[in-house]
Write a structure and sequence with these properties.
about 325 residues; alpha/beta; TIM Barrel; 8-stranded parallel beta barrel; 12 helices; about 40% helix; globular; binds fe (ii) ion
């Protein structure tokens, strides 16, 4: 790789574009560094979403974030989907295209969930070969995000961070580090989130995600419906230090508050790293602060011997 971050710029502090905020954004034109759009929401649609996006891309830099690539699936790659992705990227002048290290379906069915992969040599080579094809087709680097997970596999032979590192280096792709997902997955599988972040190839991380979650006591669900908790801010500060700082985006997908509240949350990240502040952002309204402390010492102590979590420590998300 000739340039750090695959030659991709640091866009600053952005917000995930959500329908609920369309009127506010169009009326007030808030001073936001950039927006991340969910690719699938605009690939097939004309009408209002497309009309709004036209106005957004005239004024803001945009990054595309997909949820249907299914890079780990055994189904053939969907070139019709990829063609639509490429067309949308050209139209929006997307600075990059991202998706997830996951599979979303098989036999032509899309389960609309970001399902985890077994972390072993076979799935690694499968993913690497498909990423190369996708990047050749899109004529740009792909940026892939670590998912939040609730199960592990007996077939895993390596840690998630080793899998992700080798995947990125062997396919020459970029990484989207979702700091909250690291926290959620590590809590659910008794792993150390700092080890996770320290072990990644930092020069390949081109973007961070931040979000809130729901602490269910025995496990955490990645609900994107609240403020970022203090322990995730701690991890963000570590990730910022290790990478030197990359584009940062706030995701809020349920119980979405006013735009200014969402924007204000990502500006906490800006203030946190700009000042080198050691004081955590005020997280009024949080549920789940100090989750690590609440769960005692076992989180870190147990994790050191469990880089490859086994099903004995499975955590199943509640289904409502
Ligand atoms: Fe994310």
């Amino acid at each position: 790789m000739s340039e750090a971050r695959l030659g991709l710029p640091n866009l600053g502090f952005g917000v995930g574009l959500r329908t609920a905020h369309y009127p506010h954004i169009l009326k007030h034109k808030p001073d936001v560094d950039w927006f991340e759009i969910i690719s699938e929401n605009y690939m097939d649609s004309g009408g209002r979403p497309r009309h709004v996006l036209e106005q957004i891309v005239e004024q803001y830099k945009v990054v595309m974030h997909g949820v249907s690539l299914s890079i780990g699936s055994t189904d053939p790659l969907n070139f019709e989907y990829l063609a639509k992705l490429k067309t949308l990227a050209e139209w929006t002048q997307a600075v990059w295209i991202s998706d997830h290290v996951c599979w979303t379906g098989v036999n032509g069915l899309n389960g609309h969930d970001l399902l985890p992969l077994p972390y072993n040599e076979e799935t690694l080579q499968h993913a690497v070969s498909r990423i190369k094809v996708v990047q050749d087709f899109l004529e740009r680097p792909l940026v892939l995000e670590n998912p939040s997970t609730y199960v592990t596999f007996t077939d895993s032979t390596m840690s998630e961070w080793d899998f992700v590192t080798r995947m990125a280096e062997e396919s020459d792709c970029g990484l989207l580090l979702d700091v909250n997902n690291v926290y959620v997955s590590c809590f659910n599988h008794d792993l150390d989130p700092e080890d996770f972040i320290r072990s990644l190839p930092h020069e390949r991380i081109v973007q961070f995600h931040l979000a809130g979650h729901t602490d269910c006591g025995t496990h955490i669900i990645d609900t994107h419906d609240n403020f970022v908790v203090d322990k995730v801010w701690d991890l963000y500060r570590l990730a910022h230090k290790l990478t030197g700082g990359v584009s940062t985006l706030l995701e809020w997908d349920a119980q979405i508050p006013d735009f200014d509240v969402v924007h204000g949350e990502v500006l906490k990240a800006r203030d946190l790293v700009r000042d080198g502040s050691t004081v955590l952002p005020k997280t009024a309204g949080n549920v789940g602060d100090d989750v690590l402390a609440d769960h005692g010492e076992s989180f870190h102590e147990v994790s050191r011997s469990r880089a490859i979590p086994q099903p004995a420590v499975f955590v199943a998300a509640e289904v409502e």
